[in-house]
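Marked as duplicate of an earlier ticket. Keeping the data here for the record.
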Amino acid sequence: MSSSNKEKNLFGEQKLIDDRIKKIDSLKSLGIDPYPARFNRTHTTKKAINLYTKMEKEGNESKLPESKVSLSGRVISKRNMGSVCFIDIKDMDGTIQIFSKKDQMKENYSLLDYVDIGDIVGVFGPVFKTRRGQISIDSEQLSILTKSIRPLPDKWGGLSDHEVRFRQKYLDLISNPQAMKNATLRSNVVRYMREFMYDNGFIEVETPILVPIAAGAQATPFETYHNQLSEKLYLRIATELYLKKLVVGGIEKVFEIGRLFRNEGLDHNHNPEFTTIESYEAYSDYNDVMELVENMVSYIAKKINGSMVIKSKDSNIPDIDLTPPWKRLDLRKALIDKVGIDYLQINDKKSLAIKMKELKIHVDENATWGRLLDKVISSSIEPELIQPHFLVDYPLEMSPLAKKKPDSENIVERFEAFVMGSELANAFSELNDPIDQRKRFQDQEKMRAEQGDLEADRLDEDFLIAIEHGMPPTGGLGLGVDRLTMLLSGESSIREILLFPAMRKQ
């Protein structure tokens, strides 16, 4: 848009704002409060429509004139025809038409002159059906509940400017039905996730967000400072170590749904703050956790969509079948078959970098061997995992908190779950050998110091002391709530799911 057009738009918007402020002043001069403190709403739009449908089905339409309702909502359209006015109002349940006649509303009808699109109004009257068959409210009384000053976006069908949609999410919720649908869907994902975990005997807890050591994952933390303690603190990057301390304490099935914070880039799958569920179950291993994941995800899908099959919106993408069991795919074999890399043989950075260049996969010269192998996996294996898969058994260097496979010094019992080519979950048979765990933490600290790996895990002495008291064999899980919501909604960007995604400062 040219600068002259922007100036015209700003001038036009300011004129509308000025006009609305004048209407506010006029209402006040008439003794009408444009922002009253309360309104007695008896029905939502959906309940009002259901009332008429029920009465019609029972043959009781004649009783509807006496069955008067009070509704409220935001005005999304207005059609004034002199002695008759139609407005559509929207609440969280949907929209309904308000039919207003001058001879019925009398003096109150003049209030419609002060109503603009975007205002929030209350209306009282019976539900009826117009000649065209549209269920509506026959308005007897109308009230202005909130006089909006700024106009809504020009196109009612939804904002087209993604920057505005994500930065001003409230406008997206008002004008884009899918945005509201995603918001309610995400709430239901969390609801049914909790329901599933409770039904399976897990206890929900809360652990600290401000922590002295940002450990439990390989990520760069955000730093802050506590004035009273005179101590540097971090926003947590995982809840893992705190939850495993609770397993040590005897809470054998524990979970937390909460926010994590990682100082990383932004893309369609990543946001610096995001929500996960982490769970830990004593006397289980990663095989048990695989069953937990496939059963929980399919349960949530069935509750929300009525089916374990997600219908694709794109003819080029198949329907996704979440029905258990999901396929298990050995990571080492997959890499050998796909790109000819055996991570037990090509186990140094130089050899792996040479092979990656042959495969035309970008090599970050500052990355560790584990980071480079992760790049190979994300480039060559993950994009093909469209249907749900568990990619199992990872190199030890990539998994400092996972238990080794029996009779193996270099492979650990870890899996990642993938759907639509995107990681959904990460899980281990948790390492409970405190001597081995201390050595691995020390190796991670060495990688940070000598190789500059800022995402390497950190040694947490308090956690080591905890497991030195004895932690039972445990299966642990981390699953992305936002990623799962993306999957169930059919959205390809995390920004469509988050109500307040991270944005660059204007």
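See parent ticket for discussion. The first strand starts at residue 68 and ends at 80.
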